[in-house]
Amino acid sequence: MNITLYHNPNCSKSRRTLELLEENGVKPNIVSYLTEPPAAESIVRLAGLLSLKVADLLRKGEEDAKNASDLPPVGDEAALADWIEKHPETLQRPIAVDEDTDRAIIGRPPENVLQLLQK
């Protein structure tokens, strides 16, 4: 199983999602998205895999998002993905992607990730 985990080690939900994967024998490819922000194209892809709009990946409660004077309109998918790339702390977390089946899940709650492990 080829799982990519967009991970923030400072987030308890992200840490628990990683633990659940490891407890189930999965060693994910970890993307520390705060230090390795996904490109805008990857953010658009993640939204598509999750059947969400890019705006749904934005953590609106984060300070950068709440106080942003340059936040593009939520309907402008490309511009918003570019903005999230520049402000990775505003990306919803954690996100796990099964690269073999092109399925993705947001680990809130962390147990959601178990859906990826089901065939």
Number of strands: 4
Distance between the termini: 11 Å
- The average pLDDT score comes to 94
In the CATH classification, which architecture applies? 3-Layer(aba) Sandwich
Q: Determine the CATH topology.
A: Glutaredoxin
Number of helices: 5
Strand content: 5-15%
Largest sheet: 4 strands, mixed
Based on CA atoms alone, the radius of gyration comes out at 14 Å
- Which class do the helix and strand fractions yield? alpha+beta
Strand order, main sheet: write it out.
Answer: 2-1-3-4
Shape estimate: globular
Q: How many structural domains does the protein architecture include?
A: 1
State the helical fraction: 25-40%
Q: Helix and strand string, N-terminal first?
A: EHEHHHEEH
* Corresponding CATH superfamily: Glutaredoxin
Describe the SSE topology.
Elements: E1 3-7, H1 12-23, E2 29-32, H2 40-49, H3 63-66, H4 77-86, E3 95-98, E4 103-106, H5 114-117
Parallel strand pairs: 1-2
Antiparallel strand pairs: 1-3, 3-4
Helix pairs in contact: 2-4
Could you explain how this protein is built, in words?
The chain has 119 residues and is an alpha+beta fold. The chain has one domain: Glutaredoxin, CATH 3.40.30.10. 34% of the residues lie in helices and 14% in strands. It has five helices and four strands; from the N terminus they run E-H-E-H-H-H-E-E-H. It has helices spanning 12-23, 40-49, 63-66, 77-86, 114-117; strands at residues 3-7, 29-32, 95-98, 103-106. It has a four-stranded mixed beta sheet, with helices on one face. Strand 3 and strand 4 form a beta hairpin. The chain starts with a strand and ends with a helix. The model has no long low-confidence stretch (mean pLDDT 94).
